[in-house]
Design a protein that fits this description.
alpha/beta; single chain
C-alpha cells in the first residue's frame, strides 16, 4: 500500500446526471486504474482541468513532479524544486525514471504515491532530435508499464493526441482517457477507439471520459472558486522539502 496518500480523486462531474439535476462525481483510483491521458486543444479547458486535478493530488500528500513545456500556465510554480519548464522538462522525466528504477531495486510496501504530470508532451518531443525522442519515449513507456507496481503514476496532457508520440503498445497502458473541447479525428480515435464516431465538439470545460475500457461518458470540469488558492496549494506541494520513501 502507499502510506498517507489517497490515490482516488475526482476528474469531473457526469454531464448526463447534471442535466437531470444530480451532481455525480466521476472518480478514478490510479492504484486500480493507473495513468491518465488528457487531450484538449487551445480553449478547451485542458489547463483548468489539470489544475483541478493537481490541487486534489496536492491535498492527498502525493509526491508531484510537474513538467510544463510551454512555461506559461504554471508560471507561479517556477521557484519550486519539482517544477520544470521548457527544455528542463527532460530533467523531470529523468528524475521520475530514476525514482522508478530505485523503487524497483529497493522494493517496499509503503512508497509515497508519485505523479509525473506533463503538459504538452507532443510539443516537447517535437523540439528534440530523433534519437532523444526515442529515448524519452522509452522512459515514458517504462513508467507506463512498471509504475503502478511501485506507486508511480502518469498524467500526460497534449493539445493533439497522436500515436507517433508513443512507442508501439505503450499508449495501451493508459487506463483513463479524458478529451475536452473540439477533438480532432485522430485524437478521438486514439482516446476512444471504437466510439470515436460518436464524439462531438464540446464547449470549454466539457468533454468525454473513458475509464478502464468502460463506455464513454460525458464530463464537465467543475468551476474553481478561487484560482489563487488553487495555485497556492499546488505550489506548496511542489515546493515542500519533507518527502519520504525514495522521493527526491
Amino acid at each position: 500500500m502507499m502510506m498517507k496518500c489517497n490515490t482516488s480523486f475526482n476528474l469531473g462531474i457526469d454531464n448526463k446526471a447534471l442535466s437531470r439535476g444530480f451532481v455525480l462525481p466521476l472518480k478514478v483510483n490510479c492504484k486500480k486504474t493507473p495513468h491518465i491521458l488528457l487531450c484538449g486543444s487551445t480553449g478547451s479547458g485542458k489547463t483548468y482541468a489539470l489544475k483541478y486535478i493537481l490541487k486534489q493530488l496536492a491535498i492527498s500528500n502525493s509526491l508531484i513532479y510537474l513538467c510544463d513545456y510551454k512555461g506559461i500556465d504554471f508560471i507561479a510554480m517556477q521557484e519550486c524544486g519539482r517544477y520544470y519548464k521548457h527544455q528542463n522538462v527532460s530533467e523531470g522525466v529523468n528524475t521520475v525514471f530514476d525514482l522508478l528504477q530505485n523503487r524497483m531495486e529497493n522494493p517496499t510496501l509503503d512508497n509515497q504515491a508519485c505523479f509525473l504530470v506533463f503538459d504538452e508532451w507532443s510539443g516537447f518531443l517535437a523540439s528534440v532530435p530523433k534519437k532523444q525522442q526515442e529515448e524519452f519515449k522509452q522512459k515514458l513507456a517504462s513508467i507506463l508499464m512498471l509504475g503502478r507496481g511501485v506507486g508511480i503514476f502518469l498524467l500526460l496532457a497534449m493539445q493533439r493526441c497522436d500515436t507517433t508520440n508513443f512507442l508501439s503498445g505503450a499508449r495501451d497502458n493508459f487506463g483513463v482517457a479524458l478529451g475536452l473541447g473540439r477533438l480532432s479525428k485522430e485524437s478521438a480515435r486514439m482516446l476512444f477507439s471504437d466510439e470515436a464516431d460518436l464524439i462531438e465538439p464540446k464547449p470549454r470545460g466539457h468533454g468525454y471520459l473513458r475509464v478502464d475500457g468502460q463506455p464513454t461518458v460525458e464530463i464537465v470540469i467543475p468551476k474553481i472558486i478561487d484560482m489563487s488558492i488553487t495555485d497556492k496549494v499546488i505550489k506548496n506541494a511542489l515546493c515542500v522539502n519533507t518527502i519520504f520513501n525514495n522521493g527526491r
